Structures are given as C-alpha cells and as structure tokens.
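Example with several molecule types.
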Amino acid sequence: MTQRGTLGVAVIGTGKMGADHVRRLHGVTGGARVAAVVDIDEARAEKIANAIEGCTAYTDPSAAMAADGVDAVLIASPGPAHEAALLTALEYDLPVLCEKPLTPDAASALRVMDAELKLGRRRIQVGFMRRYDTEYVKLKSLLGNGYLGRPLMLHNRHRNAAAPTGFTSANLINDSVVHEVDATRWLLGQEITAVTVLRPTSSENAPEGLDDPQFVIFETDGGALVDVEIFVNCGFGYQVQAEVVCERGTARIGEGHAMVTNMAGRWGGTIAQDFTERFEDAYDREVQAWVDATRRGEVTGPSTWDGYAAAAVCEAGVRSQTEGGRVAVQLVERPALYG
Amino acid sequence: MTQRGTLGVAVIGTGKMGADHVRRLHGVTGGARVAAVVDIDEARAEKIANAIEGCTAYTDPSAAMAADGVDAVLIASPGPAHEAALLTALEYDLPVLCEKPLTPDAASALRVMDAELKLGRRRIQVGFMRRYDTEYVKLKSLLGNGYLGRPLMLHNRHRNAAAPTGFTSANLINDSVVHEVDATRWLLGQEITAVTVLRPTSSENAPEGLDDPQFVIFETDGGALVDVEIFVNCGFGYQVQAEVVCERGTARIGEGHAMVTNMAGRWGGTIAQDFTERFEDAYDREVQAWVDATRRGEVTGPSTWDGYAAAAVCEAGVRSQTEGGRVAVQLVERPALYG
Amino acid sequence: MTQRGTLGVAVIGTGKMGADHVRRLHGVTGGARVAAVVDIDEARAEKIANAIEGCTAYTDPSAAMAADGVDAVLIASPGPAHEAALLTALEYDLPVLCEKPLTPDAASALRVMDAELKLGRRRIQVGFMRRYDTEYVKLKSLLGNGYLGRPLMLHNRHRNAAAPTGFTSANLINDSVVHEVDATRWLLGQEITAVTVLRPTSSENAPEGLDDPQFVIFETDGGALVDVEIFVNCGFGYQVQAEVVCERGTARIGEGHAMVTNMAGRWGGTIAQDFTERFEDAYDREVQAWVDATRRGEVTGPSTWDGYAAAAVCEAGVRSQTEGGRVAVQLVERPALYG
Amino acid sequence: MTQRGTLGVAVIGTGKMGADHVRRLHGVTGGARVAAVVDIDEARAEKIANAIEGCTAYTDPSAAMAADGVDAVLIASPGPAHEAALLTALEYDLPVLCEKPLTPDAASALRVMDAELKLGRRRIQVGFMRRYDTEYVKLKSLLGNGYLGRPLMLHNRHRNAAAPTGFTSANLINDSVVHEVDATRWLLGQEITAVTVLRPTSSENAPEGLDDPQFVIFETDGGALVDVEIFVNCGFGYQVQAEVVCERGTARIGEGHAMVTNMAGRWGGTIAQDFTERFEDAYDREVQAWVDATRRGEVTGPSTWDGYAAAAVCEAGVRSQTEGGRVAVQLVERPALYG
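Resulting structure tokens for the full complex:
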C-alpha cells in the first residue's frame, strides 16, 4: 500500500457508531473505501455490504482482517469485544482506529498494550475525537504557545439533554467523563494522579438509582486541579465547555454561539441536542486524519497508552463514587514506545 | 425623623471605603447628608468635615452617635473596630450600615447578635453589596420564579488582577471568598454546612507564602454543591462570575461584555481592573436602599445573622486551608428575629 | 448658591417624564430637592407637592421660577410648551435641564438660541440622555483616544417592541431617530449635512398609515456615512445598538448581554422591553451631572446648539420621508458661545 | 456512472483555487478522484498530475473532457476563460462545478445559459460557496420555517484585512460584494431590482485610487432593503456578518466567537485573517455536495441563472459607482429550467 492507494478498511461492528463510520468512510472521507463490514448479526452486515461496491460482509473479525484488500481496521463494536479484535489486528499487523473505550478496564488495556509492545511499533489509535474538534485544537494550540503561562486549573462542563435508559453512575464516568479524562491529559500534557467524585442533591429528572449531576475533581502530576460538572439529564441540550485558567489568563471554548437571534423578548440561539450535532465535524476530521496517516505509513493520534490511562482514571472515579473520598490513580511505567 | 426628612449620617472611619461613602452620601445618594465623620486621625476627619456644610468631625464614635442631627451610622472602620462601634450604635438604638465583615470572627459576631436580640429589633445591615448588583439581582429573581427548577450547583469565579501586599491565605477566605459565602447563602436561600479548600500548583505571580489560586467547595443544607475559583493574582483584571446549574437550565452572570471591539486580529473588550469599576453601581444602590429603608423606619438587606453566618463559614474555610480536608460549619440556632 | 448648598429645582410638567424626574430628584439624586412643581392640571401638581416637604405647586411656570428657593428649572412639559418656558427661564437667568426636543422645529430653536446668546452665557442643557449611558460614554472615550483611527461609518439599530398608538412617520424621525441624530453628532464630533430615508416593505405589525421599519442615512461634514435602522414595532423588545467603523477597527455597543441562560434548547437572555429599563441609569446620571454642574455654577452637557441642530436634521428627515430622495441640511453659523 | 462509482473529475486551472480543489478532491472529498488536470502552464499541470495515481495532465480543456475516466469538470481558471470551458463541457454533456464568477459579465452569462437551455437540462453549478457555510445554512433554514415572519431588511458586513495589490473599485463589487449579491438572492428568495453605492470618506489605509470602505444598498422585488458594508482594507481581519431583520425578530451570523480568552485587561478572541480560514469547511461541503449530487445523476446548488443574475447586479453596482445614484437592474425573463 502506498501513499497514493485507496485504503481498504474493515469496519468491525455495525451498530449506531459503526454504521455512521461506514457512511463516513464511504461518502465523506477522501482516500479510503469500505472493503469489509463485520457484525455478529449477519443480515445487518450483508445489507450494508450490498449497498457498497467492493464491500464484503463477515461475522468473524479475523476472517475480515485476513481478506484481500483490507488494509486497516476500524473497531466500533461494544467495548467488551474490543480486546479480542485488537489482539487479532495486531497479529495481522494492521493499523487500527478503535472507538473509545480502548477496553473496559485497565487490566485488559494493559494486555493490549503488551501485545503492541511485543509487535514493537504503534498500530492502534483510540477514538478520543475531541482532539480533532476545532475548538479543542485551538485551545491546545494556545496552551502550546505559552502566551498564557502554565495551566493551573481546568473547569469543564459536560451536559446531555437526557441520558439513555439504564445509564448508571458507572456509565457516567466510563462513557461521559472519560472524554474529560482524555481532554485533561491531552490539553495539559499531564497524568491524572487522583480522582474525587462529589454529589450534590440529584435533579428530579434523574432516573431512580442515578445521582445526577455529579462533580468530579482530578489532580494531576503537574499540580493542576481539574473539575468536571457532569449532568446527563440537564434537559436543555448537549453542551461541552472547557476553561483553562493559566498564570496570565484564561481561555474558554464550547459556547456554541454561531447564530444569534432576537425574538419575543429574548436574544440568544439554539443549543445542540446531541453529540452528533456538536462533534460531527470532529468525527470527520478524526477519520480523515487516521486515513491520511495510515496511507503515509504512520500512526498518530491517541495511543494505546492513552486508552490505558483513561481506563485507569475511570476505575479510580468509579471507586470514588462507590467508596467516597479521594482515590489515587496508579499507572504502570510509561513504555518508551509511547514516549 | 419622618419619611420626608433628610437622614443625618455619621460615618465611622474615613479610610478608602469610608471616604468613598462620604462622597457617595454627600453627592450621589438622595435623602441623606453627612452629619458627622469619625476617625482616630483627627486631622483627616476635620479635613473631610470642613468640606461639607453641617458636618462635624469626631475621634470618638460614641460622641458622634450622641450628637444632634445624627440619625444613622455607617461603619467603615477596620474590622477589629466594628464590634465596639456596633454595640455603641445599638445602645443609641441607631440604624447601622456596617461594611463587611460584621466582625472578624464568629464569636464576636455572636456578641453583636446578642445585643441586637436584647434590643429586640433589627438595627444592623451588613455591607454585602453584591446583593445590590444588577446582575446578581437578576439572577436571584430568576431563581425565585422557579422557571429553572431547584438549584443543584453554583460555579463561581473570583479573580483580581493583583492582591494587595501582605495578602495572606486567610485574607483570601475572609476578604475575598466571603463575598461568595454571602452570595451563595442569599442566592440559594440555604446555609453552608461544610467547606473544603483545594490548592492547585501556585502561579509564579503569587507572592511568597501565598498559594494562589485556590479552589473552595461549599456544601449546603439544601444539598447544593458550590465551587469557587479564587485567584487574586490572575494578572488580567477583576472578574466576578457565577453560574447556577438548576434542574431545567443554568444561568450565568458576570461576563461584562458591554462594548465589543474588532482590532488587530482580535474581537473582544476590556476587563474591569478593580471592584470599584465593577461594583460602583452596586455600592450606590446599597447605600441608597439603606437610606430609603431607614427613612421609612425599616431595616432591610443582609442582617447580623448573615454577618455571623459568613464569619462562621470563613472560620471553617481557614481551618480547611491550614488543616486540610473538609471542615463542617457549626451555626447556633437561628433566632426568630432573623427568620 | 454655593457648591455646598442643596439645589432647589422647579419641575415644569408632571406627566410621565416629569413625575419620574420628581421621583429622581427627590429620592435618587444627591444635592438637590424639588422646590416647586408646575402643571396646568392644578390637582395633579398639588398631589405631588404635598408628598414632598418644602415643595409648592404652581400652574404658572413663571410664578414657580420667581419663587424663593428655586435655583434651577427642569422642563418636562410637552414639546410645544418648551419655547415659552425656556424664554422665561432665561429671563430669570436660571439654569435649565430641558427634556428633548429643545423645541419642535428649527425656527423656534433659533429663537431660544437668540435669547441665550443675548443673555451671553449658557444656561440650557438639552435632555439627550444617551450621552450619559455607560456604553455610549465608553464608545465616545474609545473614539477619543484615537486608537481605532478616524471614524468612517456608524451603523445604528433602534428598535421598539411597539410604538404608541397614533405614532406617525414624522414621530419616527422626531421622537426616535432624533436620538441617533444627537448620538451621531456627539460621537463623531461632526455635523450632519444630508439625510435620506429609505423604506423597505412594511411589517404586517405596522399600524395602517405608518411605514415601519425605515432606513435612514446621514452624511456628515467629516465625510462619515451613518445608517439607522428604525423599527418601532419590531415586537421582540427595545434594543439600541451602535457600531462605529474606523480606519483600524470597529466598536459595537448595545448587546445587553448581562445574564446568559441555558434553557429548553436555547442559550441567551432577555431583551429590555422599554427605554426606562434600558436607560434608567443614564437618566439618573444625566440629572445628577446637571445638579452637580449647576451647584458648581457651570453648564455642561448638550447645548441649545445641539437642540437646534437636531431639530434641523429632523426637519430634513421628515422632508425626505414625504418628498423622497436626499435632503440637504442647512444650519446657521455656529455661534462662538457653543464653540 | 452509477451512484456507487467513484467520480473522475477534470480540474481546469491549477492556480491557487484550482490547486486547492485538487487537494480537496484527492484527499478530503469522498467518492471522487482527480482524473485530469488542465493548465496552459504544462509543467505545472504535469507536476500535479504526477503526484496523483491515475491523473493525466492536459493543456487543452477539450482534450481533458474527452478523455476516458473523466465524468465531471471543475472549472477554476480565471473568469475570462470560463465561457469557453463551460460551452465545451455542455457539448460533452458533462456536469460542471464552476468557480465564481460564472462569467465576467451578463452578456456572456446569457450565452452560457442559452447553451444549457439548448441542451435542455441543468449541468452547471456555480461556486457560490456561502450557501454551504454552516451558519448561512442555519440562517436560511430559520428564514424558511417562517418563525420570524417575512424578511424586511438584511444588514451585511464584509471586511478583509487588506485587499490584493491592484484591487479596483470594480473588483470590490465583482469579487467581493458578489457574494452578498448571491447570499441576498438565496437567503431572501428574491431578485435584486436596484443598486446604489455610497462612499464615506476613505480610510488612510486604502491604496490610491480605491475608495474604501463603500456602502452598497440593494432593493429587491419582494420589497426588502439590503445594505452591505464592504471594507477591504479594514486592517483587523476577515469578517463576514449578516443580520436579517424580519417582522417578528432578527437573526445574525458571523460573530466567530468560538474561543474566548481573558488576557492582559481584555476578554475576546481572534479574528480569522482570510477566507480560507473562515470558509474552508464551506468549500469542503460544497465540493462534497457537488460530487454526491453528480453521483446520483442530479444537479443541485447555484445555477447558471444565479450566475447570470449576480453578473447583472454587479454590472449595475459598477455603474452606480461610476455614475452615482441608484441604478436599476434589468434581468431577462427567468427560463422554466431554473424555476
């Protein structure tokens, strides 16, 4: 495969995210094509494959990865299925874009990391797509130029109009706050060393058994203090905001103030209702960046280490939820491959 | 003194705040006049008195309060002098506007409260002037109409360009965060039950011995969670912001976005450089409201109870700073007079 | 009358604006008192006078101005009554704050100007209160410091929720756009030399006989181009905005973005519903500034010349409405007194 | 060519815009490939072709269009070369995306329209890419839902940091304001019937011979009044804003307030410095939409009629600049094909 060839991608999992990535690779991303789709639901996989020229349906990820014309793998199956698919892809030495989480816990993430270390080169990119959002990229760039001085605090707001049915307190950390875990590590370039979860009184709109909102505090090895308001039944929309407080100034993103109206005694605008509306462009850029890097023979973006570190922080967060108080985060030593 | 008479005010203390209140009562406030000024620096008091028709200078607060034509007292002396002046004013049964803090600690605040309870009627208003700021008033009003549902969280930012020389960690609670203490109690209508102070790495602009910024967390008896970023050497200006997160929405004040410019590759505006610029109107409204209520024979605004509660919360905050961890706030039972 | 005496004011006219100024002078403004009120409706005047210590009711402006204890005059009667009241005040050599318009047309304004010129000193301040609005003051100050370079264009929006019954196209110029006439002259420091009024299709909410909105263009003797959207039945609120476009940048005021809420899929805030809400502080500052200057023995603020120039521009605007096209503005030579 | 085949595109012209479109089609757009590039500079065309698998270089547009594997044409050559290329593409019955302007004047645009009418089906899409900008799309959508009522006025700001050397008053209409011409027609769904160009005093930063800024007024056949501030040497950045004023409210786009910083006494953010920064996403969407429609066998987007109407309005604008006053726009009757 050379820079100029079109990248044949096998998409593992054709649920909501997987189907969306198929649509993206087929109709939005330049330089790639969907060569294979994999789902345990054979009919679903075939229906998708049939609509795309040169695309074959599989139920077995391994068979798809072995197929001719498959140059790379995009994993969008449920989290518990990631480890097996990742290990197989590493056996085939194929580049992978793996939707978050890398794996559901730190131990399994370590096993994947071991396999990649044994292979000796980076093959895996984890789908923390906020790193590809225009506003986050601007914020990262501003922090990088040093104009504001060192970052001291990071305030985050993460609000969903309503959580899916059955969403638990653990989901609130593992599926929602995990984005702030990665954003914190990436923006600040620091590891998270402790997590504390606090709970105000719960909204009457929170389903029985879920405390919502919650307030999460991270400490980092660079001495920064990070707070996250996570409120998954806020009712009014989907809103992700971040403000970094530095020694000489602050910077804030996520206002979403594109169009301003005056109507009926009020000025203002609309709030996005879900993440596809807010982050659609970030997904497009993420997949395009992965395709471009892969065609150049490179691996960029969030690494297996990032996936592992996020899993370890989330484990600590869930423990703070259940046991109360501050929970320290323990990480293995960072391998040179992810230096 | 009837509704229609002009209120003769004795101003105790003619330092920065006291002199400003003299200017305000003399030239800005309707319905009042400065009848007496008091300062241990006799020359300073006389210089001010001489410039105002019908104003006499004193060095002894008690003499000023006994003077003919003095209908009310404004205390703007240093905090440690407040208790004596307040007790004297209560003896003379005079209405008082007392600059914050009521007194420097909870024990002395309780003594003042006891004296007012013995008198049997409210005489004292404490100078928490944020309650008179247009934006805070709007926020309070919005919370009151119930449209947003119950408040669950309150995020505060309190930033000064630079702290005065000698400003300590205790000042940071007692002189800065004390405003958020009162704003929290007033906006939410709840008492603060515990305080936790966290410290990120300190800015290189913080003077030796002062950890700055700090991050303060309040818990309330209504189950709300309140956080305060206090950063008194932020460098860029004076900025006070608050966002209340409720069950059905949020509301934020303090952006200060009156004038927007486009210049040299940037859009935006200026940030106030100190509290007199940001809160000048609030001071004007506070004093006018006090004069108006006093002329009607009423006492409104923050009470001795509010001054005491703030002192108790600040004591807990300073203990959290020095001892670490969460410190519970203990309040005496609330007397019916302040119900 | 010295700097330190209280200013005794006679208020002529006790309709909506007059009564509001009585309230302001009595209870908000420092250094002044209402010494007399005048209205052709004797009962109304007496009712107001009786509620204020030391205030006498009159039906004849001249009698009030001659009364003991009257140091200054505030004229808030209907426009057609202004000329007579102003000429009487000049005879008594009393300082005057005259609500806009100075007089209803340029010819009568010239007669008042002649009388003041004969007296030989400024006595009259015209009530163009936007000059006292905090945001306009900031804009003026920014233009004055030269940082943005010369002003080239000024875009204005002037929107009312709904016009009063019977509001005509001429009112739209004389009562609404007149504020932009003065704001233009004051902000730019230039005279208006021509007016063109354009008319888009009218809103279905415009009453029969009124074209609304209209679009007004001023040319100035400094070569600036000024446009005014005037829309007095916009439905959504009262909104006054201005953007000056200069050689090196622009500056905009009037967004009114004090409190931002998130609710029900929308972010934003409320729009003021009328001018008392938007400009209450400006009125307070205007009257306070007039009282302060008068006590110092000075006359500041918009002059008789400003009242005359506004009348001349409005006359040209009404002609452009009725005859179409561009109408040049003719001004007499500016007397040195107003230099 | 079916929905599922990859679209082979011949790109005519490989200057700044052409080279950018080659990059886009090759690496960003899904479902398309660059099959041919054409430039009179043979070396330049070959250099580009050599870097892309399956791409051939030509100097003759006709030869490229006749080549095997060329399914569609993107014209990015200078305006005067458009007519010939368009007529050739119509002869080959190929779908075309033609960068604006369609042709440099109304007469040549009419000749292209005649050829397309003779062919009997739409083949040409004109590159008015603002129709693909997220904010303009939101504004169009809001106007379409009728919630704001009929549009009455449209205020536009179009500012460039600095114009290219040699930019003339005619360029200012034909190359800059032409975007507002199309945006007006598209947003309002109305034809422009008259143009008036006004000139304030010129900025000292305007090059000799160019009056800058200028103020352009459109009237439409629906009675709307449209104003455009065009300021191509504003110095501070690239800024495109629009506010539609309707019967029940207004809507404004173009603030560009993604990231807000606090620094050194100022809040605010950065302004884009050129159109590639501001409208890069719009170009991506435009080309993707063209590729998608073409693969479905459809032609969408701005038509030859839109290109012709814009040319006619611009001709009137340039006449108003040179002759002064209001110039009526004359259009031929709209053919049913563009109904």
